Automatic annotation (TrEMBL):
Residue intervals of the GIY-YIG domain: 17-96
Keywords assigned: Cytoplasm, DNA damage, DNA excision, DNA repair, Excision nuclease, SOS response
PANTHER family recorded: UVRABC SYSTEM PROTEIN C, UVRC/OXIDOREDUCTASE
Protein name: UvrABC system protein C
InterPro entries with a match to the protein in the record: GIY-YIG_endonuc, GIY-YIG_endonuc_sf, GIY-YIG_UvrC_Cho, RuvA_2-like, UVR_dom_sf, UvrABC_protein_C, UvrC, UvrC_RNase_H_dom
Native organism: Marivirga atlantica
HAMAP family: UvrC
GO molecular function: DNA binding; excinuclease ABC activity
Subcellular location: Cytoplasm
Complex formation: Interacts with UvrB in an incision complex.
Keyword Ribosomal protein assigned: no
Chain's role: The UvrABC repair system catalyzes the recognition and processing of DNA lesions. UvrC both incises the 5' and 3' sides of the lesion. The N-terminal half is responsible for the 3' incision and the C-terminal half is responsible for the 5' incision.
UniProt keyword annotation of NAD present: no
Chief site of localization: cytoplasm
Length: 602
């Protein structure tokens, strides 16, 4: 770990010249940026020596750097992989953000007698062999429906052990009678015959349709030769079903196989990445993601990050990657190609077409969303008879447990939507005991005295979670700052959803169906959730700190070191002996592990 700023010291010259990853820490020891470098000394130096070439965002980043941590790796590609995994794990605020955190669907062939094919979003170890992930549930269901039309695989959850089948424990169900299952539960189908269907289904899940097509064609010809025309027709129907399925996903040339396609469409603040996996001329995976830029990163850098992430997610081992921009080949594991003509160029164009469609849909959604949000805040203005449209709304709530650990929260909505970067937590400092009114006066006063001091924008509306008492307490704070009557303020009581204005004896009621009331409820509920969560964390931390300090040999200094390094109580509890030893030494680590083990045993 090196202390910054480097330009005031000779620390720059001590940095290694090897490839690796660097992490920038701020004054709170939070990691705010992770980067990779072919030469760590040159890359890190560029942040401090070439300031005139930096854009506004990079200059802001450099001002926040207080410490720098570096990790050396063997190659530039290793640095890329490490950087990618650290960004995903740490999510630093200045790194690009992949805006897709959904869990993806898989198909699993289970490890059990007469295996089933099931859909799932969780990969459980030893449960079976997983295929996917699929870009959508619809894509997964199309494959699953095809397999169930082609093969007679069971869908029941029965334990079909030899003992259970031989003892006649089960009876065939409706699936058997309508021809979707051959009845292995009663011994009507052998395990070896069932396994042949499973092996065929596996080839389809791998994206290899040629093997099942060949099999059905052989069976059809053999049945026809034996004059079993009804059986031959069944195989012909299945062959046509497979060919129709393949024709829908066939792109250009069936000889094109094991190829990744990754293209980028770049805007000022966002980029859209489309990713294909091609096997036997068919698209087996298609996915488009949106990436938020943080420091005006180059298209090459963004595409590399997205590609590494996609290949890992979809477990692709393709050597060839087609792209729409020039990329330096940084690894022997895959090779970038920028095709100019032919079928490979058609694949890149198709990928770009998908990316453009996704971008258009996103922009349309955003425009529709903005119109709706503006309509709601204008409705709120009308319902509350406000002078200005409340584009900025702040809502306060406080929380305590029997008077202990009093805390408060403030949430900020911009244009009717949460702006979480503006959320604030507060420890109540001047109030003794469970006095919610005094606590409200304190936190509202602290919030707006700071905004005035720093000359920041004031909200268009203040919402207090509570009735008259809480509202009057907040009004006192505004009066002391000469802000009363300059900012509209209301209280919302939860029981009857009553809206209180300062000085009015009776509350007003907004229609329960009104979008503006739903907005106020969202504000109130979000402030309450934020306050409760913070209060629980404070109590948990205090309890845990007390537990640690009760361990002989562990003092306040050790506890602070642990919290500073691990950032949370949960991570300390989950830490291994090796991780604890790095922070507090082997002896104290032994004491901590021993105390945790004893507590679990009790």
């Amino acid at each position: 770990m090196y202390d910054a700023p480097f330009y005031q010291t000779d620390e720059l010259s001590k940095l290694p010249k090897e490839p690796g990853v660097y992490k920038f820490h701020n004054s709170n020891d939070d990691i705010i940026y992770v980067g990779k470098a072919k030469n760590l000394r040159n890359r890190v130096s560029s942040y401090f020596n070439n300031s005139r070439q930096h854009n506004r965002k990079t200059l802001k980043l450099v001002k926040e750097i207080k410490q720098i941590e570096v990790s050396i790796v063997n190659t530039e590609f290793d640095a890329l992989l490490l950087e990618n995994s650290l960004i995903k794990e740490l999510q630093p605020k200045y790194n690009i953000l992949l805006k897709d955190d959904k869990s993806f669907p898989y198909l699993c062939i289970t490890n059990e007698p007469f295996p089933r094919i099931i859909s799932t979003r969780k990969k459980i170890r030893n449960r079976g062999t997983y295929y996917g992930p699929y870009a959508s549930v619809r894509a997964m269901n199309n494959v699953l429906d095809l397999i169930r039309k082609l093969y007679t695989l069971r869908t029941c959850k029965l334990n079909l052990s030899d003992h259970n089948i031989k003892s006649g424990k089960f009876k065939v169900c409706l699936e058997y009678h309508i021809g979707n299952c051959k009845g292995p539960c009663e011994g009507y189908q052998s395990a070896s015959d069932y396994q042949k269907d499973i092996e065929q289904a596996q080839e389809i899940l791998k994206g290899n349709l040629n093997i099942p097509k060949t099999y059905f064609k052989q069976q059809m010809n053999e049945a026809a030769s034996n004059l079993s025309f009804e059986s031959a027709q069944k195989y012909k129907d299945k062959l046509e079903l497979l060919e129709r399925f393949q024709s829908k996903s066939l792109v250009v040339n069936p000889r094109l196989t094991d190829i990744d396609v990754c293209t980028i469409i770049s805007e000022d603040n966002y980029a859209f990445i489309n990713y294909f996996i091609i096997k036997n001329g068919s698209i087996t995976v298609t996915k488009t993601i949106e990436i938020k830029k943080k420091l005006e990163e180059s298209d090459q850098e963004i595409l590399l990050h997205a590609l590494i992430d996609m290949r890992k997610l979809y477990e692709s081992n393709s050597k060839e990657v087609l792209t729409n921009i020039e990329l330096q080949n940084v690894s022997e594991y895959f090779h970038f190609i920028l095709p100019q003509i032919g079928d490979k160029k058609k694949l890149v164009d198709l990928s770009l077409k998908n990316g453009l469609y996704f971008k258009k849909e996103k922009l349309n959604q955003n425009e529709t969303s903005k119109i709706k949000e503006l309509r709601v805040v204008k409705q709120l203005q009308a319902d509350l008879q406000l002078k200005d449209v409340p584009l900025r709304i702040e809502c306060f709530d406080n929380s305590n447990f029997q008077g202990t650990n009093p805390v408060a929260s403030m949430v900020h909505f911009r244009n009717g939507r949460p702006k979480k970067s503006e959320y604030r937590h507060y420890h109540v400092k001047t109030v003794v005991g469970p006095d919610d009114f005094a606590s409200m006066t304190e936190i509202v006063g602290r919030r707006y005295s700071r905004l005035l001091k720093e000359n920041l924008t004031l909200p268009d509306l203040i919402v207090i979670d509570g009735g008259k008492g809480q509202l009057n307490a907040a009004v006192q704070a505004l009066k002391s700052l000469d802000l009363y009557s300059k900012i509209p303020i209301i209280g919302i009581a939860k029981r009857l959803e009553e809206i209180y204005f300062p000085g009015d004896q009776y509350p007003i009621h907004i229609s329960k169906k009104s979008e503006s009331l739903k907005l106020l409820q969202r504000l109130r509920d979000e402030a309450h959730r934020f306050a409760i969560t913070f209060h629980r964390n404070v109590r948990s931390k205090q309890t845990f700190t007390s537990e640690l300090e009760d361990i002989k040999g562990i003092g306040e200094k050790t506890v602070n070191e642990l919290l500073a390094y691990f950032k949370s109580v949960k991570k300390i509890k989950e830490a291994s002996y090796e991780e604890l030893s790095k922070v507090v030494g082997s002896k104290k680590a032994e004491l901590l592990i021993k105390a945790q083990t004893t507590k679990k045993a009790n």
